[in-house]
Amino acid sequence: MESAKENQPQEAHVLVFPYPAQGHINTMLRLAEALSFAGGLRISFLNTEHNHRRLSRFTFRPNFRFLSIPDGLPDDKPRSAQQVIELFHSLRTRSVDSFRALLLAGGNRDPDGWPPVTCVIVDGSMPFFMDPAQALGIPAIVFRTISASSLWVYLQISQMIEAGELPFPADADLDEPIKSVPAMEGFLRRRDLPSICRQTTKAEDEMLHLFANISTSATRSKGLILNTSNFLEAPILSKIRSLFPTTYAVGPLHALVESITSSSVSASLLSEDRSALIWLDAQPDHSVVYVSFGSLVQLTQEEFLEFWHGLLNSGHRFLWVMRPDLVAGGTEAVEMAGLEERARLVAWAPQEEVLRHRAVGCFITHSGWNSTVESAAAGVPMVCWPRAWDQLVNSRLVGEVWKVGLDMKDVCRREMVESMVRAVMEGKKAEEFRQVAAEMAVEIGRSVAEDGDSMFDFDRLVRDILSLSMCASIAQPPHRSCPK
Question: Which PROSITE patterns match (predicted)?
Fold first, then answer.
């Protein structure tokens, strides 16, 4: 006969699984950190073995741990932007069984005393990991790490095709407005569509529909988490909630974590060069242009030299994050002699701290969503040079909707770089940008404060996880699905 203790529900145990790329890991680790402070939750953060080895130096609270499964690729196989599709297919075809085995292995308390997983939060770009969890009676919540606006565009792919706005010819006018995406009719152009939309040549394009199907798959989950706020994207969130009523807008997460924990968490797969902060300490207020194209973007030699000469010609100080693999063929053309006082190059930098530094007056960015909201929360105007995917939507938000910077997409000329840097750093226009950026930072701070919208949604997420976990723990064993 089972004891009363054996019949009691297990502790809530949340497994958080990001797509194995820097930006995704950053965002979802911040959410995991915030959840670990919520009370009543244990958090397992699942990485691929390749990334687990690079993140093993991090330590967290006793109710937080790292786990790993293989991604199916050889150890010496590059995981760069050029291999993103190959990595995706490997995860889908070779890692799902390992994921299921991990969940089954937790059917009883493990040797460390951890209870079975009672809820999974899975990266929405990998919906194929939802199904094995929910088949075992473990509720799944989806986290999309892109902007709400980008997600909304992906969700409207079928509507754009039906309206005849997709596909369009390669020589089409890219400034032609897109009218079939509700709430974005006033500012969305062909030029601003995600790269998968701009590149497709036929309505039946397999990759185009893959992105659409991945986005709609969140309807199979118990909820949708977004790293945004009502202040940043209220009209779009309203539309998304019409499809996904249980949507949690809990961002910007780096600011939310700081509000909850009074500290920040970094999940960099690269070693950060903190000497950048020492160099910034010696610079005047708002005098430095910070340049970073994220962890995956790669420049050609020609693009690199256009940015380099544009920055030099602007006359402004600059701090450039120059990853070893940033420029195809290397950066041997860089000549630093005589530039030590006005320029600093680092392989990687603690970005949140750099953006908050008083010396930074402008951010040249690829418009990844993490970088975009970190800059907005720090009150730093942007010059956006997006390359692909959702970055093209984000840069339009910066330049046309929020008006907190300039959008330089599809252009890479030194004259344009110089002109935009000067516009954001000098004169009356620069003062206007700084004022708008400062006001935006204040509003973001309010959203993650105790009574803010993002904090409200985070608290609601915690309550729902506890409720779902209670149902899941009662259902084990045998596994049964929780009621909707």
Answer: UDPGT (PS00375)
Nearest CA-CA partner of 19 in 97, 124, 89: 124
Evaluate whether residue 158 is within a structural domain.
no
pLDDT at 340 over 80: no
CA distance 409 to 2: 65
| Position 176 in a domain | no
Helix axes 414-425, 301-314, angle to 10 degrees: 40
What are the tens digits of pLDDT across the range 207-226?
999 999 999 999 999 999 99
Tell me the residue ranges of DSSP E strands in 52-163. 64-69, 119-123, 140-144
CB 238 within 8 A of CB 183: yes
Mention every residue, 6+ apart, whose C-beta is less than 8 A from residue 465.
12, 14, 35, 41, 119, 141
For residues 313 and 206, state if they share a domain: no
Co-location of 75 and 208 in the same domain: yes
CA distance 418 to 306: 10
Q: Verify that 72 and 145 share a domain, yes or no.
A: yes
Q: Are 224 and 244 in contact (CB under 8 A)?
A: yes
Instruction: Count structural domains, the chain.
Output: 2
Known catalytic residues are: 24, 123
Which DSSP letter does residue 350 get?
A: -
Confidence grade of residue 36 (pLDDT, cut at 50, 70, 90): very high
Strand ranges (E), 104-147? 119-123, 140-144
Whole-prediction pTM: 0.93
Is residue 482, in this structure, part of any structural domain at all?
Answer: no
Tell me the residue range of the domain where 400 lies.
275-445
Per-residue pLDDT tens digits for 274-310? 999 999 999 999 999 999 999 889 999 999 999 999 9
State the Cα–Cα distance between residues 205 and 483, nearest whole angstrom. Answer: 37
Instruction: Please check the confidence at residue 59 and state whether its pLDDT lies above 80.
Output: no
Question: Do 312 and 403 fall within a single domain?
Answer: yes
Q: Is residue 136 part of a domain?
A: yes
How many other CB atoms sit within 10 Å of the CB of residue 311?
A: 22
Closest CA to 336 of 349, 320, 325: 320
